[in-house]
Each structure stands twice: as C-alpha cells, then as structure tokens.
C-alpha cells in the first residue's frame, strides 16, 4: 500500500494550462510541490509551479527526467499521446489510470463503456465512411451530430445534421478521421457532476451544477442546478458507478442531459473540469484539492456546498470587464495570468456568490 | 494615479516563508506573478513563485535586479533592513510604506504612535540601562514585561518581571539592546483585527478573531471572538484610524487586549498575520488576496464572514497529526511544504469549520 505523499513530495502534472495552474495551487495547500510538463512556452501553471519542463510529448529523455523527479503523475487534459503514457507508466504511478484515458479519448469507446454500465446515452453509431453514415442516419434519424471520435473539445470537430442531404459535407468536415454519429437528445438543460475517488475506493461528489454554453464553449455553471431530489440522487449514483467501473483515482467530470425520461450521460472527462470551478468558492475543499488529495493518496475532503454560486467564464475580451467585476463584492475572481486575449481563449472565471447554500 | 496591475504583472515579495507562500497563491488568483526575495535557501514561497532570488538583504546588485523585475514590492515581515528599503524605494513603490515599517519595527515608536492617536496602550517606558529600568519599575510597577525595542517575535526577546529584584537578570537578557518596559494588563482575552486599506483609501476589516497563545506562540484563533457589539465596533474603528494615520496600503494586523475598561492595543503588524489565516476558509476573499489587491492597486474584496472557524497552528511535531486531521471533513489543511519539523517551527495550520457564520 502506498503511503500518502508528505510535505515536500512532488506531483507531476502533464499540461500547463489553467487547470494545471489551479492544481498546483491546491497541491501547495497540502504542502506538495508541482512539476509541470508542457510543450508550450510560458504555461499559466508555470507561475505557481516548483518546476517546469518545456518539451514535446515525444521527447523520451525529457519525459524520463520528468517522471524520475516526481512521486506521482497526473494530467489536466485527456489527449496525452499513448507513447508518452507507455513510458511514464513504467516509471511512476499515473493517476487517473490508463483505462479512464482509453475510455475518454475515444467517443465510441466511451459510449460503449457507458452503455455497458446500463447508463442512458444518446443513440450512436460508428462512422468511418459514407456508407456507415448513410446507415447511421437511417437508424438514428435527424437531427443528429457527427463528431470525430478523438481530440474534439469545446465544440471543435463537430457538425450538426438537420437532414441527410448534409451528409457529404459533414463527412468532409471530419477530414477522414474516424467519427461517430450521435442522435439528437431533446433535453431541457445540461448539468454536470464533479466526482472524486480516492486510492482506497472512497467516493465523494460535489453538488451537480447547471451548465450553459455559448458557441460550443461553457459560459456559466450555476449551483444549485434545477434537478428533482430523485434526479440529484441519480446523478451522484451514476457518477459513482462510472468511478468504480474504471477503478478511478482522482476527479472526474460527468456531463448529463436532463430529459423528461431521466438523465442521459453526454460525456465524461477524466480530470478536473471547467464546470467544477464554482467549488473554489462554494465548498471548503474544491475540485482541485480533491483531485490532488486523491492522486496523492490522501483521504478525500469535504465537498459539501456552503454557498449558491454562478461561475462565469471570462473568454477573450471578457478580461476587460475585470475592473468592474473586481469592484463588486459578490465576485471572486480567478485569472489565469494570460497576457494575450484571443477570441475564444479562456482568460479566467468569476465565481459570483448569490447567497448561502439553499435550493 | 497608478493603474491596477493587470495579468502577467509581477509583485515582488521580501521574505519567502509561509506568508509569502500564501501571498503568492493569492496573487495567482488575480493573474499576477510573484518574485520572492529571500536570503535562505529553498523558501516555502519558492514552490509557488514565478521567480526566486536567493540573496542577502545587503546585496545591492541582487536587490536592484529584483526591484527592476517587478511592478510593486511588498513584504511578509517587518524587520527589513533600512538600507535595503532605502534602495528599493527609489526603484519601485513599496507597499505598505516606510511609515508603517518605522512604527512597527520599534516597540517604543509604536507605543508613542498609538498613544498619539488617542488609543489605549499599556503603560510603558524606554529602558536603555539599569537606571532607566529602576525608574520605569517605580512608575509602572510589577508585574511588567521587559522587551527589546526591535526584532522580537513569537515571545522572543521578552522577560517577565514579577518583582524589582529580577531587574538585573531581565536587563542582562536584553543583551544591551534598547528595551521597553510594559506594564501588566489585566485582560480577559486577546483578539485581533485584520484590516486592509486600498490605494484609494478604501478600508475593509475582517471580523475580529480571538487568539490563544502557548509558550509565546499563537496556538489558535477563533471566530467569532467573544466581544460585545460595542467592542466589535471599537475594534474596527480603531483599526481604521491606524490605517488612515499611516496612509497605509495593504493588510495590517492589530492585536488587542480585552479588558473590563475597554480595548487596549497590544501591537500592530504591517503585513498579513497568523491570526488572519482563518479567512482562507471563512471568507470569499481572504487576507492574502486582500493584501495583494491593495498593493496591486485593485479595489478591496468582500471580507464578510460566512463560517465559524477555529484556526490551529501546526507547530513542530504537530505535523504528524496531519493524517488524522485530513480524514476529518470539518478540517481544511494548509501546509507550508517544510520537510524538517523543528520544535517551535510553524509547519502549517488547520482551519476547522465549526458551522455557518453565527454568534
């Protein structure tokens, strides 16, 4: 049995974006250091990390030195190249483990895994060519969404089809990548559950949040979400089932569609999740510390919610609203230290406290 | 008029201990970087700083390079050598400013300043030699405490006198340093106010906390403190008066004795303060972010208290209690990453949530 990491021990984080930055801050609260591995220069996480390695994911020497300098490895994004993982796994524990990555890196594998657990997912079919797509459209109907199986995020690599006449153009947009057709779900709103599982199997879930997207990117998450007591229980139970099935260690984000017929799992993310940022100001232990606790072999902390919160992402030019937002005492700002505000770039977020916890 | 610091700007912090560490974390939330200046190797703040300079305070070259790399300078302790300040001030704004340091570096100057504001302080007298001490004991009586005027903390450089027969030994313990004799105050308990003042003069105070010491070192701070409504108002008003008199920018700790006759100011600290650590889990904006907001020219945040909290310092071997403390969901841990647990060394603290905010 592994002992919990003690002060001075080092957590290696693959990826140096804002999630890595907030993981590094959480690690510091537990007396731990972070070593960030990131191909890009000047990563946001570098500002608060003990050490940064700037190297690509195919640099065997850099990966080896990184792994040997840390006690455990985790990551802030799920698309880590397989070869890098193959190497890292031989040197240090990687948490969450391979299974969670394999499942979440491929939308088809993910859907099959979730359906295999008896959870509700959208109707889906694999699409490798025009014949597959025609058959899938026959079976699933329109509207539907064609998505690349791998490497999509924030609405990228996705095309909506409202009639089968759009099939050819949609397939062309996939650039020959293996794809999946997903049937349209008539949902009233989307919620997500941020769930955590410790090394010893202990499970804890944060209260579900209700998400709104704009242009395919998460705009806001609000707690409490509009959910019945039964739905709330369902959400937490299904998240726990996913964690256990994956023998998961760390924080997992589960996106759910709320429909009159019940909850439908949209997708899972094997990492801290944008829709869990509200926990920084709504809970004593936030999703970042919960994740570090899990991967460091600590017991999970208390994720009970003490406030009603709306998290709003600050995207691109939204950063110019900071002076106004900062002057409002209801707002807690979390900026990522990025100096260039490109359109669509997540620059920070604001947690707006709307009152003490209550329905 | 200075503009508020924007993402990517850098706050220079003199001192790399746990206070610097938590200041660096707070700065990261606002998108700012920290550059730590610390003579000692491997400072706790270095784990979460963008940059660390390891150099003594008399290294003119290092001080200059440090100042030129940052946008504003602050500090985590008040005993910065005068010559270092003389230099740094010519290169960048130092906040809080010189006046606050001059007052708090010398117990005699501090007492005179506070008394000059019309605030209640213990009876005191300057003691440079045996004649002074004999006169002071005549005037003030026993019990009394003889303290070095400068460089004392956590009870160091202090001797209690219960009779004038102890005068010689007490004076010897001062090692020829200029001293001050302070009369005994018959207080029921000690509280402290963590107050903040922004660049534009805006003032905000956290709710007073009640302090318990063990062996001259702060052991616990509890909110709410035992104070009448009138005493609470007094505490906040007198802190505001001190801030304004010093034209202060940043967070200031004010220690107060509670007596039947009212509040008596014990001492002030021109920095974030151990007795304000509870704000990390009791408020949306904690003392560290409040300090960074002030020195970075931002508006102050909301310091309203949402929880009842007891902060307990983890000193020396207390660090061995961490596994048990971590398993209790009421506890939020804050460890400093120190690997060597010497007796009396502050290794971390735990904020125990005892309920939602209430008297």
UniProtKB/TrEMBL annotation, chains A, B:
Enzyme Commission (EC) number: 6.3.4.18
GO MF annotations in UniProt: 5-(carboxyamino)imidazole ribonucleotide synthase activity; ATP binding; metal ion binding; phosphoribosylaminoimidazole carboxylase activity
Binding site for ATP: 107, 147, 152-158, 182-185, 190, 213, 266-267
ATP-grasp domain location: 111-296
BP term (GO), one: 'de novo' IMP biosynthetic process
A Gene Ontology cellular-component term: cytosol
Chain's role: Catalyzes the ATP-dependent conversion of 5-aminoimidazole ribonucleotide (AIR) and HCO(3)- to N5-carboxyaminoimidazole ribonucleotide (N5-CAIR).
NCBIfam families in alphabetical order: PRK06019.1-1 (NF004675), PRK06019.1-2 (NF004676), PRK06019.1-5 (NF004679), purK (TIGR01161)
Protein name: N5-carboxyaminoimidazole ribonucleotide synthase
Originating species: Maritimibacter fusiformis
Lineage of source species: Bacteria, Pseudomonadati, Pseudomonadota, Alphaproteobacteria, Rhodobacterales
């Amino acid at each position: 049995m592994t002992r919990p990491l003690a002060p001075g021990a080092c957590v290696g984080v693959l990826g140096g974006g804002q999630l890595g930055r907030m993981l590094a801050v959480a690690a510091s609260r537990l007396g731990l250091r972070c070593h960030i591995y990131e191909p890009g220069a000047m990563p946001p996480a570098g500002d608060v990390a003990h050490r940064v390695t700037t190297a690509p994911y195919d640099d065997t020497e850099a990966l080896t030195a990184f792994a040997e300098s840390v006690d455990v490895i985790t990551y802030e994004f799920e698309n880590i190249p397989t070869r890098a993982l193959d190497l890292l796994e031989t040197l240090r524990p990687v948490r969450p483990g391979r299974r969670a990555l394999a499942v979440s890196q491929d939308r088809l594998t993910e859907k099959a895994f979730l359906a295999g657990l008896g959870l509700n997912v959208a109707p889906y079919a694999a699409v490798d060519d025009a014949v597959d797509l025609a058959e899938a459209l026959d079976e699933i109907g329109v509207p539907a969404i064609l998505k690349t199986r791998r490497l999509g995020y924030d609405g990228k690599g996705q095309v909506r089809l409202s009639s089968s006449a759009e099939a050819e153009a949609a397939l062309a947009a996939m650039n020959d990548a293996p794809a999946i057709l997903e049937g349209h779900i008539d949902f009233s709103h989307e919620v997500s559950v941020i769930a955590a599982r410790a090394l010893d199997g202990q499970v804890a879930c944060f209260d579900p949040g209700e998400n709104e997207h704009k242009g395919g990117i998460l705009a806001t998450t609000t707690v409490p979400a509009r959910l019945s007591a039964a739905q709330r229980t369902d959400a937490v139970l299904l998240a726990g089932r996913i964690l256990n099935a994956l023998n998961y260690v760390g924080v997992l984000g589960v996106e759910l569609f709320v429909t009159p017929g019940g909850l439908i799992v949209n997708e899972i993310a094997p990492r801290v999740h944008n829709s869990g940022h509200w926990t920084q100001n709504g809970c004593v232990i936030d999703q970042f510390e919960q994740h570090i606790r899990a991967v460091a072999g600590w017991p999970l902390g208390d994720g009970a919610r003490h406030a009603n919160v709306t998290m709003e992402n600050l995207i691109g030019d939204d950063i110019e609203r900071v002076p106004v937002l900062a002057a409002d005492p209801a707002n807690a700002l979390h900026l990522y230290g990025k100096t260039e505000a490109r359109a669509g770039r997540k620059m920070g977020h604001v947690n707006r406290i709307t009152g003490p916890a209550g329905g």
